[in-house]
Amino acid sequence: MKREIIKTGDGSATIFLPDWNEHYHSKHGAMQEALHVFIQTGYKHHLTRHSPESISILEIGFGTGLNALLTFFEAENTRVKVDYTGVEAYPVSAEELAALDYAEAVAEQSASEIFQELHETGWEKRSEISPFFSLKKEKKFFSEISANEEFDLIYFDAFGPRVQPDLWSEEVFRNMYRALKENGVLVTYSAKGDVRRAMQAVGFAVERLQGPPGKREMLRATKIERC
Ligand SMILES: C[S@@+](CC[C@H](N)C(=O)[O-])C[C@H]1O[C@@H](n2cnc3c(N)ncnc32)[C@H](O)[C@@H]1O
After folding, report:
1. Residue 68 — pLDDT band, cuts 50, 70, 90?
2. C-alpha distances in angstroms, 168 versus 63, 135, 154?
3. Atom 19 (ligand 1): residue with closest C-alpha?
4. DSSP alpha helices (H): ranges in the chain?
5. Sheet containing strand 4-7, strands side by side
6. In degrees, to the nearest 5, what angle opens at C-alpha 149 toward C-alphas 131 and 42?
7. Topology classification of domain 29-223
8. ∠ CA(172), CA(25), CA(173), 5° rounding?
9. Between 186 and which of 28, 84, 154, 218 could a Cys-Cys bridge form, CB atoms 3.0 to 4.6 Å apart?
């Protein structure tokens, strides 16, 4: 499918799919969305609630690696060990990554080097990027995920329900629920009623929270064990 690099509202870039009229991130601001939905409402929320020494994170749609890059610096700054797993069936090319220029948009000195390392590290094996961050990229379809109580946090960043409704179904969220540890949390940018109901139907306790700039709401789903 054709992919184009475009600028979003906050000046950071994203990939646009003209055939689907769909973006990899919010057109109002890719960086703002990643920071708000995944870092602030996911990662930092988990730290505040549990003060953990380590966190295992699953990303649904590794894509450009922006969420992984931002999480890397959070792990370094909070000195929490993050084991990050990114699932992706259609990896982004080296040319696209260069054009996105995320290292420039992240105000960290080593961002360029780290971003390159996140992408150059091999697939299907866990690599220690730093003492506080390991990465395993898995090239496969989301439907092939068979994790069982492995993750504390899921960044659910699939394409939207308008273009890939099957990825927002009860079946998919049941699999996500199983992949999470007890009290584990899934965060996503979508706030659609159908999505919320599918999450609730499989047992998640779902909160509707303020969305990133340009989007009214987002969802955070917590795995509460059934008695
Ligand atoms: C919204 S984009 C991900 C954005 C990504 N988190 C980022 O920060 O760049 C959705 C991603 O899911 C991938 N994808 C779409 N359908 C998939 C499937 N069935 N299995 C695995 N990956 C899929 C796409 O290639 C794309 O990279």
Report:
1. very high
2. 18, 25, 14
3. 141
4. 30-33, 45-50, 66-78, 94-100, 102-105, 111-120, 170-179, 193-201
5. 4-7, 13-17, 22-23
6. 60
7. Rossmann fold (3.40.50)
8. 10
9. 154
Between the alpha carbon of residue 21 and those of residues 17, 72, 86, 196, 218, the distances in Å are 6, 30, 24, 23, 21
Please provide the average confidence, as pLDDT, over all residues in the chain. 96
Q: Which 3 state secondary structure label does DSSP give 30?
A: helix
Helix/strand/coil for 220? strand
Is 67 touching ligand 1 by the criterion CB < 6 Å?
yes
Q: For the chain, how far is it from start to end, CA to CA, in angstroms?
A: 45
- CB neighbourhood size of 6 (10 A): 13
For residue 123, give the DSSP letter: B
Domain residue limits, the chain: 29-223
Compute, in angstroms, the gap from residue 26 CA to the centroid of ligand 1.
14
Ligand 1 proximity of 63 Cβ (cutoff 6 Å): yes
Considering the entire predicted model, what is its pTM?
A: 0.97
Kindly state the DSSP code that residue 226 receives in the 8-state scheme.
P
User: pLDDT of 175-217, one tens digit each?
Assistant: 999 999 999 999 999 999 999 999 999 999 999 999 999 999 9
Report yes or no: 86 and 137 within 8 Å, Cβ to Cβ: yes
CB 64 within 8 A of CB 100: yes
The 8-class DSSP code of residue 39 comes to I
How confident is the model over 91-145, as pLDDT tens digits?
Answer: 999 999 999 989 888 888 899 999 999 999 999 999 999 999 999 999 999 999 9
